[in-house]
Design brief:
about 20% helix; alpha+beta; Dihydrolipoamide Transferase; 4 domains; OB fold (Dihydrolipoamide Acetyltransferase, E2P); 7-stranded mixed β-sheet; about 500 residues; single chain; 4-stranded antiparallel β-sheet
C-alpha cells in the first residue's frame, strides 16, 4: 500500500514552503516518525517525519517551492524493511524478561493543546521535560506551555512511549497536535545501556564511505544554538543518526580558540589594542516570550488609544512609619504577617475610589461602566515579566487580610503559578517602583482600567511645617489617568484625598 505524504499546514499565514534538504535518499527504508526532510517558510524551519514505515519515493526535490497540501513524497508501507533494516545486536536483545513487563496495546493517543482560558487562542511550547522516546506515566508532567497570561504544565494523558511532534518555541493554536503517546500496559520498558559503559557489541560509527546527507548536518534547534555561539557545523561531530548534529551536540560544543596567525592582520600599520581578560563583544538573542509580547502590545495600545495624563503629589510618610514602628512586632506576632505600606495605600485608595467613582470606572465602546466594588490590581515583577494579580473587594478587607493576600499573590507570581482567574478583572492598579529605587515616574494605565497609582522611594527631605524647616521621610506619588473619562478636578481631588488619608491614618479607622 502506497501512502502519499503532503506538505502540512505550518501556520495560518503561510501558503508555501521550500524543500530545504532531504535526510533520506530516494528508495531508502524509513521508520515511522523518522525525520526525512526539512521544509523552510519565510518564518521558520520545520522537520517532516515519516507517517509510516516503508520504502521512500521522493516526489519533490531540494530547492522546490511547494504549496500547502502539495505531494512531497510517497511511502510504500512495509516494502524493503527486511533488507534495509540491520539486525539488532545480540546484546540489546538480552533483557527480554524485563521488557515483557510493559506491553504495547497498539493504541496511539494524540495529545492536543488544551483550552486554557476563554480569551486565549494560542500558546507557545516553552520546554519539554521529557525527551522523544521516553516512557511517561499517566499524569506525569511532560512539558510547559505558556500563553500571554500564564504558564501551564502539560501532563501525560496515558502511560506509554512519548513521540514529540511540536518543538520548543513553536506557537500552537488551541487544539493543535502537540505529541503522541504509544499506549503501554504494565511497568516502563528498560532503558538502553548508559553511554558511559558501552558494550563491545555496540555499533561502530559508519565509515566515511557510507556518509549520507545527514552526516555533519545540524537539526534546526542545533543550528540555532550553533549560530548563537558562532560555531560552524563543520567544527562539530554529530552523534545522531547517520552522524547528524543533535541539539545536545550543539549545546556541548565549545568555540575553538583563534590561532595566532588569524588574530593578527596580514600587514598591520599599527598594533591592535590588547584587551585583558573578561572583555567580551559577544551578543546573544532570545526569543520574546508570549507574556512579554503581550505586555508590549498592550502598553503600546494604551499609549495610542487613551488620552493619558499624570498628576503628582507628595506624602509625608512619618505618621505611617511611626505606627509601623510602634506596632509591627505585636502585629506580626498576632497575625503571622508583617505590617507593610501596601495595606495603607490599598485602604486609602479604596476610600478615595468610592468618593470619586470615575477613577474606578472604565470605557466600554460608547458607555462608561461604574463599579461599586474595588478590585485592586497589584503590579508584581515576576521572572517572566510584569504580572498584575487582583485583590477582590479590597474595600471590605482589613489590614491583616490585605497583607496576607498581597503576600499570597506575590509568591504565586514569582513561582509562575498564578491562574488566569487571579489576573483577570481589576478596576484600579497600584504599582510600587520605589522598591527598585525610583524617585518619580509616570506609570502606564493597565487597560481597560482608567487609572493607576505609582508609589516611589522614601527620601529624607527638608520641608516646612508650621513655619519651621524640618526633615521628614517624603514619597512622591503619581496618578496616571485617562482624560477621556476622568477630568482634572477628579484626578487631582482623588490624589489629594489619598495624601490626606496616608498622612493621618486614623481617618482610615474612623471613616472621615
Amino acid at each position: 500500500m502506497s501512502l502519499e505524504m503532503k506538505v502540512p499546514a505550518v501556520g495560518e499565514s503561510i501558503t508555501e514552503v521550500t524543500v530545504s534538504s532531504w535526510s533520506k535518499n530516494d528508495g531508502d527504508f524509513v521508520e515511522m516518525d523518522e525525520v526525512i526532510c526539512e521544509l523552510e517558510s519565510d518564518k521558520a524551519t520545520f522537520e517532516v517525519t515519516a507517517e509510516a514505515a516503508g520504502k521512500l519515493s521522493i516526489k519533490a526535490q531540494e530547492g522546490d517551492t511547494l504549496e500547502i497540501g502539495a505531494v512531497l513524497c510517497e511511502i510504500e508501507e512495509g516494502a524493503g524493511g527486511g533488507d534495509a533494516k540491520p539486525a539488532e545486536p545480540a546484546a540489546e536483545s538480552a533483557p527480554t524478561e524485563a521488557a515483557s513487563e510493559s506491553k504495547a496495546t497498539g493504541e496511539v493517543l494524540e495529545m492536543k493543546v488544551p483550552t486554557v482560558g476563554e480569551s486565549i487562542t494560542e500558546v507557545t511550547l516553552s520546554t519539554w521535560q521529557k525527551s522523544d522516546g521516553d516512557f511517561v506515566e499517566l499524569d506525569e508532567n511532560i512539558a510547559e506551555i505558556e500563553s500571554d497570561k500564564a504558564t501551564f504544565d502539560l501532563t501525560a494523558e496515558a502511560q506509554g512511549i512519548l513521540r514529540i511532534v511540536a518543538q520548543e518555541g513553536d506557537t500552537l493554536e488551541i487544539g493543535a497536535l502537540i505529541c503522541k503517546i504509544e499506549v503501554m500496559e504494565g511497568a516502563p520498558a528498560p532503558k538502553a545501556p548508559a553511554a558511559d559503559a558501552p558494550s563491545e557489541t555496540a555499533s561502530a560509527p559508519a565509515p566515511s564511505g557510507s556518509e549520507t546527507y545527514a552526516t555533519g548536518h545540524a537539526s534546526p534547534a542545533a543550528a540555532k544554538i550553533l549560530d548563537e555561539k558562532g560555531i560552524a557545523a563543520s567544527d562539530v561531530k554529530g552523534t545522531g543518526r547517520d552522524g547528524r548534529i543533535t541539539k545536545e551536540d550543539a549545546a556541548n560544543a565549545q568555540k575553538s580558540a583563534p590561532t595566532q596567525e588569524s588574530s593578527k592582520p596580514a600587514a598591520p600599520q599599527f598594533e591592535a589594542p590588547v584587551f585583558g581578560g573578561g572583555v567580551s563583544r559577544e551578543q546573544r538573542r532570545e526569543k520574546m516570550s508570549s507574556l512579554r509580547k503581550t505586555v508590549a502590545r498592550r502598553l503600546v495600545s494604551v499609549k495610542n488609544e487613551t488620552a493619558m495624563l499624570t498628576t503628582f503629589n507628595e506624602v509625608n510618610m512619618k505618621p505611617i512609619m511611626d505606627i509601623r514602628k510602634k506596632y509591627k512586632e505585636e502585629f506580626k506576632e498576632k497575625n503571622e504577617v508583617g505590617l507593610g505600606f501596601m495595606s495603607f495605600f490599598t485602604k486609602a485608595c479604596c476610600v478615595a475610589l468610592q468618593e470619586w467613582p470615575a477613577v474606578n470606572a472604565m470605557i466600554d465602546e460608547n458607555e462608561i461602566v461604574y463599579n461599586d466594588f474595588c478590585d485592586i490590581s497589584i503590579a508584581v515583577s515576576a521572572p517572566k515579566g510584569l504580572v498584575v494579580p487582583v485583590i477582590r473587594n479590597a474595600e471590605s478587607l482589613n489590614f491583616v487580610q490585605i497583607e496576607k493576600e498581597v503576600i499570597r499573590l506575590a509568591t504565586k507570581a514569582r513561582e509562575n503559578k498564578l491562574s488566569i482567574e487571579e489576573m483577570q478583572g481589576g478596576t484600579f492598579t497600584i504599582t510600587n517602583g520605589g522598591v527598585f529605587g525610583s524617585m518619580m515616574s509616570t506609570p502606564i494605565i493597565n487597560a481597560p482600567q482608567s487609572a493607576i497609582l505609582g508609589m516611589h522611594n522614601i527620601v529624607q527631605r527638608a520641608v516646612v511645617e508650621n513655619g519651621e524647616v524640618v526633615v521628614r521621610p517624603m514619597m512622591y506619588v503619581a496618578l496616571s489617568y485617562d482624560h477621556r473619562i476622568i477630568d482634572g478636578r477628579e484626578s487631582v481631588s482623588f490624589l489629594v484625598r489619598v495624601k490626606q488619608l496616608l498622612e493621618d491614618p486614623t481617618r482610615l479607622l474612623l471613616g472621615v
